Amino acid sequence: MLTHLPILQVILPLVAAPSCLIIRRASLVWLFTLGVSIAAFAVSALLLQQVSTSGAITYGLGGWDAPWGIEYRIDLLNAWVLLVVTGISTVVLAAARASVQAEMDQARQTLFYTLYLLCFAGLLGIVATGDVFNVFVFLEISSLATYALIALGRDRRALWAAFQYLIMGTIGATFILIGIGFLYMMTGTLNMADLAQRLPEVSSSSTVLAAFAFIVVGVCLKLALFPLHMWLPNAYSFAPSIVTAFLAATATKVALYLLVRFTFTVFGVQFSLTSLPLQSLFIGLGLAGVFVASVVAIYQVDIKRMLAYSSVAQVGYMVVGIGISSVVAVQATLLHLFNHALMKGGLFLALAGLAYRAGSCHIDAFRGLGRTMPWTMAAIVIGGISLIGMPLTVGFVSKWYLISAALESNLWFVALLVVMGSLVAVVYIWRLVEAAYFQEPAGDQPPVVGEAPLSLLLPTWLLISANLYFGIDTRLPVEVTGAAAQYLFGGAQ
Amino acid sequence: MLLTSLYNYWVVIALMMIGLYMVLAQGNLIKKIIGLNIFQTSVFIFYISVGKVNGGNAPILAHGETIYSNPLPHVLILTAIVVGIATTSLALALVIRIKRAYGSVEERDIQAEDRPC
Asked: Which chain regions cross the lipid bilayer (chain A) (predicted)?
């Protein structure tokens, strides 16, 4: 049983997805989906524990060994990402029931959970697999499910957002497919470990360079790195609240994992970061993303959209970490991956509570919210403080690591710009605080009846208190990400 | 020499550019999907070209046949074709619902309708 953990991680939600259609009753399906997610979380916790005691695990699918069969390979990096994705998914699902009932027709709820599980399985598959073609297949499984999930939004603009994302996402995935084809042409293998061994011999050929370019651009489209982020704000603002919370906290993180995996493991530090000008490109685009997206966020009146732009900015910080490319900087990126999942998961769940009561996430709905929904609003404020990166929250920890990495590499202007980017975040979070605590509700607007239901409030606060807990007791994330970052550089130094 | 011996790759590049141009330039959603299909098909042809071995036979055990084409890219592309069909059908389903909600499948009309909201 224990030896089959890597495949169980993926196959469990994949098999569970069609089973939802047999169960049919929405409340039972919800319970079943939650159970599957908890099981997946337990599997990932066991995997992380195994990996941290006895090193990387390899698993040959169907008993076929690596060069012929598909290999799943779990090391510290993807065990960590698996834990983040399954953990967030479990909390989001715990909150899902009330919000889904309020935002979707009865007939669609079962299908929603089916799609959710397919998307979940796809994301876990991308992270667990050690085979590049398998990455493409799981990427498409999760993407197709995501397009359909976004189209479940009540606003008709959700359809248009889903269509735009479908076009962009398919181009991105096809780019990755072209890159994989080039790699196969040059090396004759699709296994990541084999690719890492064989690529250095042929690294000067233009085919490998083209493969790298196609793969990096394709992954950055999925990651929504500025300026390839155009699909994200629409998709996040019009998707159902629960879908936004899930995607914001997991999908971009998995894309970031893919970027780290390809640049560090498959192509190797030597190739991607020494012989190519990728460092300055990533730092430049990352910082541009931080500023452009943060400034655009200030002018948004829909708060879901504002936080969507803020997500683009946060992706910028993570990519800056890869760009600086020292051990500490990559650790900062991996820390921010976890921390941003906690912040955005909590914030979007709080917005789901607001949408449940007020029916909208417009800035006007926030007026006087400090009195009518004190707990939801307090969660948003703490999440916002974490987003800004104040001490005692997780946001501070990752920014601290990022800034000290920048200073270590003598990139003081990068450190300065990171601090300035956080100051812009103060502006857009302050707008919410001002509306909620210092403004009276507008007269023409129906009053908010009361606090969000407990089933939504508890998961929100679970994530928000995790923001505080891991901001003070940083041992677990810092140890795991530190070891993972060293492991990534281990092959090269 | 280069032009004729590698003509299949030139076909791939031409199809890829035609497809990508259609996706970007066409305002009609159905035409965008057709463009996306041409773009994906070019990648399928690229993979199949990669698997071809000069003078190679089909990869079947037969008398005296020692050179055969690499079957792996063909298998990979079978998977990618399935993915392509799924993407196309999902896109078409979205277009049907867009047509119902907006009354048009032209990008310009859809954006014009959303602006006042």
From this structure: 6-23, 28-48, 77-98, 110-129, 135-153, 165-186, 206-226, 238-260, 280-299, 306-331, 377-398, 410-430
Q: Which of A160, A171, A184 sits opposite B98 (nearest CB)?
A: A160
| HEC per residue, B93-110 | HHHHHHHHHHCCCEHHHH
Q: What is the pLDDT of residue A56?
A: 85
| Domain of residue B95, residue span | 2-114
What pLDDT is attached to residue A41? 94
Over residues A392-400, mean pLDDT: 89
Q: Is the model's pLDDT at B5 over the cut of 80?
A: no
Contact of A112 with A254, CB cutoff 8 Å: no
Task: Specify the amino acid at residue B33.
Answer: I
The more confidently predicted of residues B37 and B111 is: B37
How far is the CA of A277 from the CAs of A119, A223, A274, A284, A406, in angstroms? 34, 20, 8, 11, 17
For chain A, give the percent of residues with pLDDT over 90.
46
How far is residue A467's CA from residue B71's CA, in Å, rounded to a whole number?
A: 51
CB contact set of A136 (below 8 Å; sequence gap of 6+): A173, A176, A177, A180, B80, B83
- Residue pair A421/A290 in contact (Cβ under 8 Å)? The answer is yes
**Which residue among A147, A156, A171 sits closest to B23, beta carbon to beta carbon?**
A171
Task: State residue A200's pLDDT score.
Answer: 84
Q: With 70 as the cut, is the pLDDT of residue A230 above it?
A: yes
- CB proximity A170 to B under 8 Å: yes
| CA pair distance A251, A92, nearest whole angstrom | 13
Place of tokens 């790759």: B9
Side chain identity at A316, as an amino acid letter? G
Inter-chain touch B47–A181, beta carbons under 8 Å: yes
- Output the CA torsion A251→A256→A258→A260 (10° steps): -160
Q: Where are the domains of chain A?
A: 278-493
Of A163, A178, A184, the CB nearest to B29: A163
- State the total domains in chain B: 1
Question: Does residue B116 surpass a pLDDT of 70?
Answer: no
**Under 8 Å CB-to-CB from A24, ≥6 apart: which residues?**
A110
Cis peptide before A200, with omega less than 30 degrees from 0?
no
Task: Give the pLDDT confidence score for residue A493 in this predicted structure.
Answer: 35
User: Mean pLDDT throughout A81-94?
Assistant: 94
For A189: left if phi > 0, alpha if psi spans -120 to 50, otherwise beta; the answer is beta
A440 CB neighbour count, 10 Å cutoff: 8
Residues of chain A found within 8 Å of residue B39, distances taken between Cβ atoms: 171, 174
A226 versus A181: which is more confidently predicted?
Answer: A181
Round to whole Å and give the CA distance between A180 and A474. 38
Residue A174 with chain B: CB contacts under 8 Å: 39-40, 43
Task: Tell me which chain A residues have a C-beta less than 8 angstroms from the C-beta of B110.
Answer: 160
- Asked if B114 contacts A157 with a C-beta cutoff of 8 angstroms, the reply is yes
Q: What is the pTM of this model?
A: 0.92
What would the DSSP string read from start to end of A248-282? HHHHHHHHHHHHHIIIIIITHHIIIIISSTHHHHH
Q: What is the CATH number of the domain that holds B45?
A: 1.10.287.3510
Q: How far is CA A150 from CA A45, A157, A382, in A?
A: 29, 10, 27
